Amino acid sequence: MLALRGLAWLLLLQALGEGVTHLFGLPFPGPVVGLVLLLPALQWAWVRDPVAAMAELLLAHLSLLFVPVGVGVITHLHLVAQYGFQLLAVIVLSTWIGLAVTAWVLRALLRKEVAPEARNG
Fold it and tell me: What angle do CA 33, 111, 95 make, to 5 degrees?
């Protein structure tokens, strides 16, 4: 029952995100706004506990979420054969870029965190 309340919270926040996106004409997806709304909502235990139960349930069955992707790849196997090398290049390049940006942001945040400590001590 707790997991169902968590699912209800997730769906409610996603719907709110969609509403905010459409209301203000924002250029990014509603579920992203819903996740941003979820972040402060997790401060309350009556939201956090059901969402945590739902997250555990989803993580336990995470492999099922890959089935649609696998079916899509098999369905469009001709495109994979035709553009396989380009797809591989884009996947590798975007992964490297994502890792580099993540490392850069982490480095910048760690510098900000260390700077006040250096001044105090």
Answer: 55
CA 97 to chain centre: 17
CA–CA dist 24, 16 (Å, integer): 12
Residues 6+ apart with CB under 8 A from 55: 6
pLDDT digits (tens, 9 = 90+) for 77-112: 999 999 999 999 999 999 999 999 999 999 999 988
Instruction: Single out the residue of 17, 51, 19 nearest to residue 34, CA to CA.
Output: 17
pLDDT classification of 113: cutoffs 50, 70, 90: confident
CB 42 within 8 A of CB 48: yes
